[in-house]
């Protein structure tokens, strides 16, 4: 009987594998196609879902507003705040954008396989461009890597260099009423490991304790870990063991506790960056090269005067903050935040968000269609 069961079970497994293979092939085929309408349809279907928020301004008009007052996790989009403080300190002469930074210092805040390969991709490009000298790079390149490649290690290094207190003052400066304070996001990845060691808990017990932990304690733990790493960085073996702890349950807690803000807050930031009438010229001298790296593409130079963006993602989150001014003078700001996504939604939104942006910027009929569909 056991043998028969195994054979039948094996048969069903084979059929299941074939079926899964076919579904995966169809999904991959669909995913490889650009489909800006998918983004529109997703947003439309989630209008009443407070885990999806969208604000679009076009030529100073509020084109679309949906759940704009709902705070949601920013993921890496929060790095815009760090970039602003970097530019302000550089403009004031408090830091030197050309000062050299040791790659070893950045390594202190790098945990492999937690940033989608961003830090390694940045280092690889620096090597190709011969921008690494004796294991040092310029501070401006560190800031560039934070925005263009979304290096978490670079971000946490800049948090230390610029000072978290100074960075959080930017929230007050910009009057961001619903923006949570920034804290070290890489260091917070180590909280489960620290908690298990400290309390002698199992993974299951730690998971329960983490869910019950309030944000004040969570931020304080992240800060204490950050400060401890400055004195004694984790070894590669310690990083590897910590990574083994971070299953999807712990990743969900980490994702849910990332810094939150609203699209209403971020649309005001984007307007300030786009109109270039809030920060002075000295600040933009340092801020624009960091935020507007898409202008290095000759194709973008043909039709845009300027434009910048920063996206963010986790396994459950996708965010985007983007601004452009084209050569006809049209100005657009887009802030999109989505939380509690499933894997298919996350993958398809990630794939199609760029084509949605591009079509909105270049196709008047599509712009009007978006406005009509999302105002109903």
UniProtKB/TrEMBL annotation:
Lineage: Bacteria, Bacillati, Bacillota, Bacilli, Bacillales
GO MF annotation: an example: carboxypeptidase activity
Protein's name according to its UniProt entry: D-alanyl-D-alanine carboxypeptidase
Key words of the record: Carboxypeptidase, Hydrolase, Membrane, Protease, Transmembrane, Transmembrane helix
Membrane spanning stretches: 6-27
Organism field: Lysinibacillus pakistanensis
Coiled coil spans: none
Domain Beta-lactamase class A catalytic as annotated: residue spans: 59-176
């Amino acid at each position: 009987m056991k043998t028969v069961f195994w054979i039948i079970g094996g048969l069903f497994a084979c059929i299941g594998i074939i079926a899964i293979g076919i579904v995966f092939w169809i999904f991959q085929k669909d995913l490889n196609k650009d489909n800006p309408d998918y983004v529109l349809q997703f947003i439309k279907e989630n209008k009443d879902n407070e885990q999806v928020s969208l604000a679009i301004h076009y030529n100073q008009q509020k084109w679309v507003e949906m759940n704009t007052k709902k705070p949601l996790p920013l993921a890496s989009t929060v790095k815009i705040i760090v970039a602003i403080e970097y530019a302000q300190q550089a403009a004031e002469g408090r830091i030197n954008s050309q000062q050299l930074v040791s790659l070893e210092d950045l390594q202190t805040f790098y945990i492999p396989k937690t940033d989608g390969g961003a830090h390694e991709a940045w280092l690889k490009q620096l090597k190709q461009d011969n921008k690494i000298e004796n294991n040092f790079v310029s501070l401006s390149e560190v800031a560039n890597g934070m925005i263009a490649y979304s290096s978490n290690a670079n971000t946490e290094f800049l948090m230390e260099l610029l000072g978290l207190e100074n960075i959080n003052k930017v929230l007050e400066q910009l009057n961001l009423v619903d923006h949570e304070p920034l804290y070290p996001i890489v260091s917070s990845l180590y909280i489960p490991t620290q908690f298990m060691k400290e309390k002698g808990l199992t993974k299951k017990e730690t998971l329960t304790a983490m869910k019950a932990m309030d944000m004040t304690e969570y931020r304080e733990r992240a800060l204490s870990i950050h400060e401890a790493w400055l004195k004694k960085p984790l070894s590669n073996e310690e990083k590897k063991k910590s990574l083994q702890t971070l299953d999807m349950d712990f990743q969900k807690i980490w994702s849910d506790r990332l810094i939150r803000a609203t699209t209403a807050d971020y649309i005001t930031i984007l307007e300030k960056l786009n109109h270039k009438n809030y920060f002075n010229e000295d600040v933009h001298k340092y801020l624009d090269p960091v935020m507007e790296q898409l202008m290095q593409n000759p194709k973008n130079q043909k039709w845009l005067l300027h434009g910048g963006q920063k996206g963010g993602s986790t396994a459950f989150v996708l965010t985007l903050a983007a601004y452009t001014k084209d050569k006809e003078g049209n100005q657009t700001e887009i802030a999109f935040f989505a939380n509690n996504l499933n894997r298919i939604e996350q993958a398809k939104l990630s794939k199609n968000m760029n084509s949605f942006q591009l079509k909105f910027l270049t196709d008047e009929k599509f712009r009007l269609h978006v406005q009509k569909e999302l105002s109903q």
